[in-house]
Amino acid sequence: MSMLKAILPSLAFLRSRWLGCPLALMLTSTWALAQDKRWGPGEAASDYGYRFHDLFWLITILVSVAFALVVLLLAIPVLRDRERPGHRASFDHGKSLHDKRLTAVISIVTFIILDAWVLVIAMQDLREAYWAIPDAEDPQTYRVEVLAQQWAWNFRAPGVDGEFGTADDIITINELVVPKDRPVSFNMTSKDVIHALFLPEMRMKRDVNPGSINKTWFRPITAGDFTILCAELCGFAHYQMSGKLRVLEQGLFNEWEAEASKLASTAFDADDTEAQWAWDWEE
Q1: How far apart (Å, rounded) are the C-alpha atoms in residues 275 and 197?
Q2: Number of domains in the chain
Q3: Which of 44, 131, 205, 268 satisfies CB 3.0 to 4.6 Å to 198 for a cystine?
Q4: Are 136 and 158 in contact (CB under 8 A)?
């Protein structure tokens, strides 16, 4: 018995080390990952992308603070009311009026800070940016029709004549070229199942449904090559449904569009019914 009493302090010390080491490791790993730019959402490449970035970090901070408070509130009674020399462990079931009032207050404050506040900001961002689809009649708006299928993205731009369903339509598969600093507006539908067009760097994602035209948009502010993904499980080859988004400066884009329209007119085949899937643009 005396030997056990001599060992117990050492075991308590080890227990504290085993509790502290994982916490230190978690904090160190989090800091290391934060320094590595491969982790995290990365820089936004569209003009409204900063809104998603700010909201993401706001939610992360709020949830982290709430988690820390919950751990603290759990740790206090565990340490205060534990059994120890000269003190018997005590507990209750929280049925008193004081406990019920405290629970109600914490729940209401949590809802206002974590839910209502974030909801108000999110709805404002949606109204002012994501749902603010530009006017298709504006000459600055670059329009693109999207036909999704298992497992590819078909893109159609109107070409230099500005009309869909003509010989100079620019049709590409799994590759989309757009001008920088101009709004890009989409009309999208699916040939088979539900897909979701996801441009992660542009902070844009929208479902693509068969039998309907869905609309979305973004304005690229950074030139370069970016990722096109499908964010809806659409079959066994869903993982292959990816592509490349190229954003060009306006001058380079004009050259590319003129050349692509010329090649499309040359290769146009009126008998190729599979390629004649354009529709009248829907507002």
Answers
A1: 21
A2: 2
A3: 205
A4: no
Q: Are 218 and 200 in contact (CB under 8 A)?
A: no
Q: Which of 239, 264, 238, 51 is nearest to 177 (CA)?
A: 264
Give the residue-averaged pLDDT of 245-260. Answer: 94
Q: How confident is the model at residue 110 (pLDDT cuts 50, 70, 90)?
A: confident
Same domain, 258 and 237: yes
- Name the residue with tokens 């692509």: 260
What is the pTM (predicted TM-score) of this model? 0.74
Residue 75 lies in a domain: yes
Q: What is the pLDDT of residues 220-248, one digit of tens each?
A: 999 999 999 999 998 999 999 999 999 99
> What's the Cα-to-Cα distance from 38 to each of 32, 42, 43, rounded to whole Å?
11, 8, 11
Give the structural domain span for 158.
Answer: 142-275
Show which of 77, 109, 132 is a domain's final residue. 132
Confidence of residue 12 (pLDDT cuts 50, 70, 90): very low
Residue type, 87: H
27, part of any domain: no
Question: CA-CA distance, 242 to 265, in Å (whole number)?
Answer: 27
Nearest one of 78, 81, 89, 85 to 8, comparing CA atoms: 85
Look at residue 280 and tell me if it is in a domain: no
Q: Is the peptide bond preceding residue 151 cis, with omega within 30 degrees of 0?
A: yes
Most confident stretch, 102-106, 127-131, 220-224: 220-224
Q: Last residue of some domain: 88, 106, 132?
A: 132
245 conformational bin, left if phi > 0, alpha if psi -120 to 50, beta if neither: beta
